[in-house]
Amino acid sequence: MEIRLPIFTHNYVLLCVSAVFVYASVFGVSAIDVFTPAELFVENGTTATLSCSFKSREVISSLASVVWSFLPEGETGQPTSFFYYSSGKPFPGSLPQFKSRVEWAGDMNKKDVSIRVIQMQFKDNGTFSCDVKNPPDISGQVSITKVRVVMKEALPQTSAAVIVGGVIGAVIGIIIIAVVTYLIIRRQEPNHDYEGCTSLESVSSQNTRVGKKAESSNDNSRCSSPSAPVQGPVIYAQLDHSGSKNSFHKMEPVVYADIRKN
């Protein structure tokens, strides 16, 4: 849908701009800083957001204004204005190339004066200029962005997928390095051979004959750590204190003993 503006609209914008300079001449002039990206690559046929922000030492007033201009690639001279913002309202310019293709995408209170250009075309290659005035801050350099409209295959490889892939690759690399480092440290640690431990514990002496004092067993554990490796076998012995030949089932608890050769 094509937007048709009355003839007095452009005169109103010019009047507002003139009022800015008159206001500045009366109350003094201070600087304003405007910022835009130096270069922007846009895929042909897509919508591009032309970013622009500013820094002003004054409170944003209703007299603040924005002017966007365009100079085709390869041409010299003064750029042509194609979009205005003044008194809190956007005013598309009369340049046929951008007619009905420009939208306001900023927020003056946040010092954002960006715009969107719909269906970028190869003829849109060139320099886009952003100029902001916030009286009495009107003195400052116009900030420019060089726009390159290209096919999708020619876009720089800085897409979100490439960034995510790089982050995942970095995380995997860190994990691999940590695992390898852990294995190397484990391999360098000295091996501790288990030398064995013998415990002589007392076992409840049930079925002990009446009148015979139960033999005390050693409650403390004794762990031996021989300096030389164990050479002899382990012998298990069962002791019978009953004095009877047929009292095999009345034996005392088993005591395990390690016999080692020095």
User: Could you say which overall geometry the principal axes of the C-alpha atoms support?
Assistant: elongated
Beta-strand portion reads: 25-35%
Helical fraction? 10-25%
Q: How are the strands of the largest sheet arranged?
A: 3-13-11-6-7-8
- Strand element count: 17
Parts with pLDDT < 50 across at least 5 consecutive residues: 1-10, 12-17, 19-28, 197-228
How far apart the termini lie comes to 104 Å
Mind describing the biggest β-sheet? 6 strands, mixed
Series of secondary-structure elements, N-terminal to C-terminal:
HEEEEEEEEEEEEEHEEEE
What would you note in describing this structure?
- With 262 residues, this protein is of the alpha+beta class.
- It is built from two helices and 17 strands.
- It has helices at 8-27, 160-188; strands spanning 30-31, 33-35, 39-43, 48-50, 53-55, 65-72, 80-86, 89-92, 102-104, 115-117, 126-133, 137-139, 143-150, 198-199, 221-222, 234-237, 255-258.
- The strands form six sheets. Strands 3-13-11-6-7-8 form a six-stranded mixed beta sheet, covered by helices on one side. It has a three-stranded antiparallel beta sheet with strand order 4-10-9, with no helix packed on it. It has a two-stranded parallel sheet with strand order 1-12.
- The longest helix is centred in the middle third of the chain and has 29 residues, at 160-188.
- It is elongated and about 85 Å long.
- Mean pLDDT is 74; it is low at 1-10, 12-17, 19-28 and 197-228.
